[in-house]
Amino acid sequence: MTKKPQPDEQDLALFRQAIRDVKPMRQDTLPEHASPEDGPLWYRRLEASDNIHSASVGNKQKSAVDRQKRSKPEHRLDRQAAASFQFSDGFEAWFDPSQPLKYVQPGSDSHELKRLRRGDYPPDLILDLHGLRREDAKMEIAALLHAARKQHCACVCIVHGLGEHVLKRSVPNWLIQHPDVLAFHQAPLEWGGRGALLVLLRIQ
């Protein structure tokens, strides 16, 4: 039996350091009786002028993060609206394993990848997929993209985790299929490094 590759200890340490001051978006284990409709899975990033408690993400990022839970009805509506878009599991793109995970939609400005890599676009919404089953993760990504369009968000962060597990392989293949996704790039360290993607979206 082939052993599962283990995450590099240095990468794990850097990732933990980057997110040490961030309150978990959801617990890492999903109880069998729980449903994604029970609560939100993402934070909303706020500008420094917003009158809430500020949270630091890593040493460089000083943006505030809204810890207020989205209401169940709002979350449910986003999931229902997102259900109209179906990601295919049969699509599999090729990504250069020697390069950071990245993609730019044909016809879009390739310089956007550099801007994402540098962290020029801080995410407006941050989705954590830890502990989710594949089908639930797929639905939450669709709901996130629907909410981002509704709120005119230009950039979101999706935390898929480290290692080579199924979500890390599936998330980029799902994102490529969505018409609102202009580009994505492995997140800079302050937003999760190899365990996350920054996604640039078409603003409607």
Explained architecture:
- Residues 22-41, 52-78 are annotated as: Disordered.
- GO terms for molecular function: hydrolase activity; RNA endonuclease activity; rRNA binding.
- It comes from Bowmanella dokdonensis.
- With 204 residues, the protein is an alpha+beta fold.
- It has one domain: Ribosomal Protein S8, Chain: A, domain 1 (2-Layer Sandwich).
- It is 28% helix and 16% strand.
- The chain contains five helices and seven strands; from the N terminus they run αββαβαβαβαββ.
- It has helices spanning 9-18, 72-82, 111-118, 134-150, 166-177, and strands at residues 42-46, 64-66, 102-104, 125-128, 155-159, 181-186, 196-201.
- A seven-stranded mixed β-sheet has the order 2-1-4-5-7-6-3, with helices on both faces.
- It is globular and about 40 Å long.
- The termini are far apart.
